[in-house]
Amino acid sequence: MKIDRRLFVAALAPGTALLAWLVAGYAAFWFTLTPAQREASRVLGPVFETRGIVVVLWWLLGAWLAGALAKRLYEAHVAVPARLAERAEALAADPGMPLLGGQSGATAQRLAAAVDALAAQRRMLGDDIARHVAQASQRVEQERNRLAALMAELTQSVVVCNRDGNILLYNDSARALFHAMAPPPQTLGGAQAIGLGRSIYTLFDRALVAHALDTIEQRIARGAAGEPSPSAQFVTTSASGRLVQVQMAPVRAAHTGQDGAAGDPDGPGLTGFVLMLDDISDRFDEQSARDRRLMTLVEGSRAALASMRAALDMLEYPDLEPALRERFQQVIQDEVVKMSERLDSAADAESGGVAPQWPLQDMLGADLVSAAARRIEAGLESSVDTSEVDPSLWLKVDSYSLVQALVFLAGCLAGQYELRRLQLRLARVDARAHLDLVWTGHPASTETLMGWQIDPMQIGNLRLPLSVRDVVERHGGEIWVERERARHQSCFRFLLPIAPDPKTAPGPTLAPDAGRPEFYDFDLFRATDSGRTLEDRPLSGLAYTVFDTETTGLDPSGGDRIIQVGALRIVNGRLLRGERFDQLVDPQRPISAASIPIHGISQDMVRGQPTLEQVLPAFHAFARDTVLVGHNAAFDMRFLELAEATTGVRFDQPVLDTLLLAEAVHPNQVSHRLEAIAERLGVEVAGRHTAIGDAAVTAEIFLKLLGLLRQRGIVTLGQALEASQKSYYARVNY
Hints:
By secondary structure, the protein is α+β, with helices and mostly antiparallel strands.
């Protein structure tokens, strides 16, 4: 008999049995009546009254037996096979999940045994393939270990990012540096300011990084023979006020030829960049202290010299009384002693070394002019003439601030005067370079031009703390205005330092194939999905923050509050246990006595801990640019939603719930509690009913669910959210 006919018979059997039971009961009742009773309708009423109870009980017994039979048949032919199919699908997606043994029913046991045998064979084949892959990858693994050891031991802070600015690699020195740079609230709960998958633009100004990348790409595109590996440098200030010097180097796409990909004249594309960081705050604090000491020395010496000069002038009078002569001689002696003491003190203070200058980078002048011209043209929607530029001149500049100064001045000119022509000129004059911003049109007044130089720069909505004069002083240069009245032209002239041409500058001789070592198995520079909307992004490529909370009770609307927040991050399908958030919270209200045995958090443990108003901003920063994941997340999100009014923190990113996702992939399972799901998926449960422990279990479950969702065709965030909303549990409110 075919399986569909068996299911049809199984479904038809309870109804047939119930009908037969009812007919038998009615027949037994009917045939117990005498012929006279059957014909005399007047006596049927009393008969039914005396025997009707027996008939009803008979029918109820039949209905119960039919229901029990239907339930047993449904369990045997529908529910058990459906649960078995879901378990088999999970085992097919991940051979490491628990086997199917222990099923009820002979047929289910035979089927489970067959599936387990196939799974065991697959595990053996998988282990054999893994062994061969491990052997083949041994040399690559050695290279990875060498890189890991090198990164760990480097005292230089190093961060590697992909083209979109997502952090792909960093070392302990970088983590320590960013920890010192981050404001104190962001370090609550053990959170770090740096982490895999995070955006570097939360730490550095996007415009600074974009300008440095633009400079590097220009040098790559030019591809000048003999030019050293392109790099860029800038200095920025962290949120905590630390001054950081950043050196940027490109990471290019791998290629087989020496000159880039075949047929590609510009060479390999830029897939990412490396940042080498140095905290130079202390050095510049020392510079400020030196400046103050120098100013004190100058002012003190000026006053002392004035006193001595006046005393010497008086001593030239021949008729000066002896008492006055002795008094003026004493003044000279006292001032000489004081000046000597000041000089000795300054010498002792300066014994630490020479004061550093603002870091400048070597840059081809034509690249600087080209970058400034593009920025000016984009802002003013008019062309800039760059025909009079020395193509071989190299400058030593802070390119970002200098370009901003040129854009600011061009904007000021266009905002007040009708300009007929703008031009950028660059030429060598003796040992310095002249960079001119030339305009043809109305001559501006000297007072106006001086005001533009000393006022803080503002370009659109961007307000900079620097003035044009500050930028010039960074370069140790000068700025002035020149006018050519015959041609109706004026120009701002920048006097800038010149850098040696790298083609002629002496340097180490390298072998033709020397360069940075390449490592091919990190898979860190894959094509990004920055062009897609978030809901269209694949689940495997998103970053997640898996979190859980412990609370004073189970009634968020009734005044219960959060007492612990725990979270871990998932990046590229990998659980990062080292990047965690774990913080107790002072709820500023009593903890329910019934909840203490569950989570083990007493009133004494939270007393003196940070409040929710302090913790939630730090957790919000930790979860920035990620999708939130929780188990029965509606409960936790309700607490966060109610805290929005007092903390001002809003969690508006998408939320995935493992409770809803588990029901989407296993709709026939009896229980979707965290422990039941973990048991089905082979996840070890540890640290239950602690925020960080439950977050870890939820993260492991979520990683298992990703494979099961993919089997059902649910591969994007939007599809996962849609599948979640179809669950019964999605209608539960708190």
